[in-house]
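Quick start: read one record
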Amino acid sequence: MDQTQALRFAEQWVNAWNQHDLEAVLAHYTEDFSMTTPMIQKLTGDPAGTLQGKAAVGEYWRTALKNIPDLQFKIIAVTSGVDSVSIYYHSVMGKVAIETFFFNTEGKVYKALANYA
């Protein structure tokens, strides 16, 4: 993935979140994608911090949007790699995050990992 594609993805992803358009957010992902984040650990108590599948992650995110009605992300930087993109951004609760997305050959995210400071 080149930097232009990475920036386009990041802008679309952040805009969908900032509009609280969960369907637009989920459109970036495969049906069986996995999401790993310490937020899942914190909110579900699952030590693995991973949810599997669009339905499970979608429900988790739906709850998050309900609980954080003023959610707004702001991009700090975007990097591109081999079939991957990392977005460094201002997240929720005063945190900054780096989220890395891994893409399949159809351009959909099949795995995402989030780290917070």
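Residues 3-18 form the longest helix (16 residues).
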